[in-house]
Amino acid sequence: MTLDDGALDALFRTARTKSAWTADPVPDETLHQLYDLLKNGPTSANCSPARFLFLRSAESRERLKPALNPGNIEKTMAAPVTVIVAHDPQFYENLPKLFPHADARAWFAGNPDLAEETAFRNGTLQGAYLIMAARALGLDCGPMSGFDKAKVDQIFLSEQGWRSNFLVNLGHGQKDDPFPRAPRLEFDEACVLL
């Protein structure tokens, strides 16, 4: 099955990173739908290391504020939801459930470098799935990396031992984009056919 042009536009061609938000809320039900979509994206050995903190309240975003770069404060405070996309370095403890047909836990237990590399790579993939799932549900996204990871980890993730990767503001973006879409590399600049 090939998606129609409307779906391809919504997911890729006309979708834009948003920095200005309407006051329309994002219901908890939508966040559940979002996760129920993204969790089905592929990860190696179904390891699913990503963890998502949905900051919905003004109080939770105020806790985040000291960790944000100055250019990201206003748009994050105005967003209905900010997602901390993180990963669990000990994701492998769930592999007996997630990948039951092999002893995949043994591949990572006792090998923290491999576990971290796997968690970061696959958690990043799952963060991208979050963006695509959000767009598929009619939400706009504002992904960003301008923040102090150590502060975010200390404020929000230290109890679980998770590690932050990037942030995504979610909501309904204001219609006007301040800039035209930035150029992208052409096929021959980014791809090689062998």
From TrEMBL:
Keyword Cell membrane: no
UniProtKB keywords: Flavoprotein, FMN, NAD, NADP, Oxidoreductase
GO molecular function term, any single one: oxidoreductase activity
Pfam family, one: Nitroreductase
Coiled coil: none
EC code(s) of this entry: 1.-.-.-
Alphabetized InterPro entries for the sequence: Nitroreductase, Nitroreductase-like, Nitroreductase_HadB/RutE, RutE-like
Cofactor: FMN
Keyword match Flavoprotein: yes
Ranges for domain Nitroreductase: 16-172
SUPFAM superfamilies attached to this UniProt entry: FMN-dependent nitroreductase-like
Sequence similarity: Belongs to the nitroreductase family. HadB/RutE subfamily.
Protein name: Putative NADH dehydrogenase/NAD(P)H nitroreductase Acry_1774
Native species: Acidiphilium cryptum (strain JF-5)
